[in-house]
Amino acid sequence: MALNNGSTTNQALLDAQLELWQNTFGYIKSMALKSALDLRIADAIHHHGGSGATLPQIVARIKIPSSKIPHLRRLMRVLVATGVFAAQHPPPAVGSSGDDEDEPMLYTLTPVSRLLVGSQNLAPITTMNLHAAFISPFLELGSWFQHEEAPESCELFKHAHGQTCWGQADRDATFNALINDGMVSDSNFLMDIAINECAGAFQGITSLVDVGGGLGASAQAIAKAFPGVKCSVLDLDHVVANAPAGDTGVQYIAGNMFEKIPPADAMFLKWILHDWDDEECIRILKNCRKAIPPREEGGKVIIIDMAIGVEPSDLRHKEMQAVFDIFVMVINGKERNEKEWKKIFFKAGFSDYKITPVLGVRSIIEVYP
To answer: How many whole angstroms separate alpha carbon 36 and alpha carbon 272?
Structure first.
């Protein structure tokens, strides 16, 4: 019996060590995914269709030195183990016994990696999230916690880089494009789902301003789905300067949401408010409130953001919402629960709201004057 108790205790210790390692080496999974994006491995597999691609076929597309091929095999093993890709032995050739373990593996796409290929993929937003500018500040997270700083200076990104994220985007065209392209890819993915799942949020209005809407992917999706809605995009000068040319179906307006927002029936803010602290959100929302008509005339604000704990969530949803809250902390942002949302809505002069949790870890939030 004592031996059995000892074995049980030992197994519990080993399980705890495994959990510790899962957290310790989680960054390896992120960097493996980043490498796959840098090398365009998903595109190489996708090029060969549904049957998959062997390692030599992948190498022929991504063009790495022959000396790195054994290391690529090990990278693929991690990407398969983490569900980014799948691997299987090819069907045996005619006349083969099927026992040849030296047959090259066939790598195929999974639901995860299918999101990284095609015309409307999430590769740009994933590349942005894994960019060194956002990753490196977290190496200093422990020391950042120990420094006393004024609230307006309490930004991890600035602590690491000497300027705010938005300041760098203003000065660095490449970094600005990284953010804008990432937001476009997320909007291209999410907006059709949002419109299908919650079309009522966009019905009954004749005009809409996409506040901080970047290059206008969300506004374009709304204008396409609801041709009777006149859609505009408000963003800073350097963002609007890169707006797509031609007939996009939307109007682009250079301006600052902290100063003034042009009038419309509805304001739309997708993944905007989680970038800012409460006081800044209240300033934005007060400007939205000034720009819309009363509720009985169709006035509302439509928000796409996380509402932590609103819906019954599985462990993965809860974990991702918690992780995302730390991720946006890098730019002094914040993910909010319903109580926190309600507080800023009412402080900004709104009287009611409705949260519809239909977008995975994110929700559609309608706010009424």
So the answer is: 29
Place of tokens 């060194």: 132
Query: Which of 20, 57, 58 has the alpha carbon at shortest distance from 39?
Result: 58
Q: Which helix (H) or strand (E) holds 221?
A: helix 217-225
Strand locations in the chain, DSSP E? 85-88, 106-109, 207-211, 230-235, 250-254, 266-270, 300-305, 307-308, 336-337, 352-359, 362-368
Of the candidates 161, 238, 274, 317, the residue annotated as catalytic is: 274
Q: Could you tell me if 271 and 336 are in contact, meaning their C-beta atoms sit under 8 angstroms apart? A: no
Q: Is the pLDDT of residue 240 over 60?
A: yes
Single-letter residue type at 253:
I
Q: Which of 202, 170, 183, 196 is nearest to 268 (CA)?
A: 202
108: which residues sit within 8 A by CB, 6+ positions away? 45, 50, 51, 52, 53, 85, 86, 87, 88
How many other C-beta atoms lie within 10 A of the C-beta of residue 7?
10
Q: How many residues are listed for the chain in this entry?
A: 369
Residue 89: active-site member: no
C-alpha to C-alpha distance for 215 and 106, rounded to whole angstroms: 39
Query: pLDDT by residue (tens digit) across 50-85?
Result: 789 999 999 999 999 999 999 999 999 999 999 999
